[in-house]
From TrEMBL:
<feature type="region of interest" description="Disordered">
    <location>
        <begin position="73"/>
        <end position="94"/>
    </location>
</feature>
<feature type="compositionally biased region" description="Low complexity">
    <location>
        <begin position="82"/>
        <end position="94"/>
    </location>
</feature>
<comment type="similarity">
    <text>Belongs to the protein kinase superfamily. STE Ser/Thr protein kinase family. MAP kinase kinase kinase subfamily.</text>
</comment>
<dbReference type="InterPro" id="IPR011009">
    <property type="entry name" value="Kinase-like_dom_sf"/>
</dbReference>
<dbReference type="InterPro" id="IPR000719">
    <property type="entry name" value="Prot_kinase_dom"/>
</dbReference>
<dbReference type="GO" id="GO:0005524">
    <property type="term" value="F:ATP binding"/>
</dbReference>
<dbReference type="Pfam" id="PF00069">
    <property type="entry name" value="Pkinase"/>
</dbReference>
<dbReference type="GO" id="GO:0004672">
    <property type="term" value="F:protein kinase activity"/>
</dbReference>
<keyword id="KW-0808">Transferase</keyword>
<feature type="domain" description="Protein kinase">
    <location>
        <begin position="1"/>
        <end position="94"/>
    </location>
</feature>
<keyword id="KW-0067">ATP-binding</keyword>
<keyword id="KW-0547">Nucleotide-binding</keyword>
<keyword id="KW-0418">Kinase</keyword>
<protein>
    <recommendedName>
        <fullName>Protein kinase domain-containing protein</fullName>
    </recommendedName>
</protein>
<dbReference type="InterPro" id="IPR050538">
    <property type="entry name" value="MAP_kinase_kinase_kinase"/>
</dbReference>
Amino acid sequence: MHTSRHKITESVVRNFTHHILSGLAYLHSKKTVHRDIKGANLLDDASGVVKVADFGLAKHLSAHSNVLSLKGSPHWKAPEKNNINNQNERVNVI
């Protein structure tokens, strides 16, 4: 099987990042955190649109929400997420 290798340009990375952060901003505006952002949960199409997927660990925050529990894929989790006392909607971008 022949696989082609293409370099990812800065503009492609910028576009992907824009779509991912826009998706997270939308979720946060709805008081929802994804809690499992990783490459496998990002879907892209041929036109460069990237969408956040797999909301199995997502949580809707309310005035009555307790401290966020530790969720996510361990190998993709930033060490900062181990400090449960400092968690809020920004845990998606740490």
